[in-house]
Amino acid sequence: MRWDNLFADLEGQLEHELGAEDLELRVEEERLRLGRLSLRDRMRAVSDPGDDRAAPLLLWLADGSAVRLRPATFGRDWVSGELVGDAAQGVEAARASARALVPLDAVASISLTEAQVAPSLEGTGEQDRAPDAAPRLIDRLGLAFPLRDLARRRSAVTVTTLAGDLHGTIDRVARDHVDLALHEPGAPRRAANVRGIRIVPMTAVVLVRI
Predict the structure, then answer these.
(1) Record: fold of 39-125+135-209
(2) What's the whole-model pTM score?
């Protein structure tokens, strides 16, 4: 009978140790997964580009301003979407400039609600992509791509930089800077309306209102 009790005790200890090892392994795997999450991963995880009613993200930017953005598209190092309740610019400005482009390097912090924290941690890092899954093209496109598209469309924009706001039309996009033709809001990009050309380093761009 003692042998039976001994084997039962050993079996119980073994099951306990195996369970503890399994738990420790899961904890370590989760720690490693969280360690691979980027800011972009967490923003994407908590955003639903297909849902116009999804809660916007409150972004605090490098110039000290804050905007509520409902993300629609994520590039390699930028995000674009709809500005929501842009009270700082006034109601009319918010209506006239409902979309924006934000370089991820210009995001100083993000305010999340308690309901947004857990979903944001469910993101999948680039390192966790299945080996046979090809990366999407948009995931490889840097900030210069949407800026060149705005230049091609001759879209009037308001570029918020670390030194203030500039309004005009992007004439050209180089490797690390843009040429912005300055003119008054509402005026077309014509020689008579241009007040000057400003070269703006991309590293100084905080927000582009479209």
Answers:
(1) SH3 type barrels. (2.30.30)
(2) 0.77
